[in-house]
Amino acid sequence: MAAQISNNKPFIKYSQMKRDAFVMWSGGKDCSLALHNFLKEASGTVSYLVHVAGSCSQGHKLPLHLLKAQSQAMGVPLIIRHINSSHEGFEPHLKSVIRSLKKEGVNAGIFGDIHLQEHRDWIERVCKEVEVEAIFPLWGRRMRDLMDEFVDSGFRARVVAVKDERAPLHCLLGREVDQEFVRDIEAMEGVDLCGENGEYHTFVYDSPLYDKSIDF
């Protein structure tokens, strides 16, 4: 997967390098749209999807075979690093994976963050410590524009998890992410339109990046 782009992102010292990137992968809409934007706008290739979790996708609670199906549909290898106990931290596992990828020439990571500065700061610190570039294709963009782009570009996704303490969100479970869904989310007071605070999580079962849709 390659595209011709120019992209001014953090860590400018990397900007003249040919980007061979991994994508931090959850199976949901934000990482999918971030990958899509990178391929449209950046000069480089995407060599791997990276997922660090237990037996299921972290917040999304997706069976890992569904992530593998996405990987196969895109023709991009998926690396899954298991955290085997609650005492093991996420960060050491992520750094270990990135260091292994660096030996293969991977020098950048793509992340689907939109506006949570604290999380971006953490990602940038981790990437700086292992000397790879952190790329945020969706960062700072208007959330309605992102949702419109996701739907209009041909992505298809369903809601697979919601925050349990937000009872009104339960009605979203199983919903298709379409324009009606976007309007309903906008009408919910205190709910982030893109679910950036974990209000809801999605599984992308069809995409302009897939060679076929995923049955699930």
From TrEMBL:
Species this chain originates from: Mucinivorans hirudinis
Domain Diphthamide synthase: 22-215
Superkingdom field: Bacteria
Protein name: Putative ATP binding protein
InterPro entries given in the database record: Diphthami_syn_dom, DPH6/MJ0570, Rossmann-like_a/b/a_fold
Entry-linked NCBIfam families: MJ0570_dom
GO BP terms in the entry: protein histidyl modification to diphthamide
MF terms in GO: diphthine-ammonia ligase activity
Annotated transmembrane regions: none
Signal peptide range in chain numbering: none
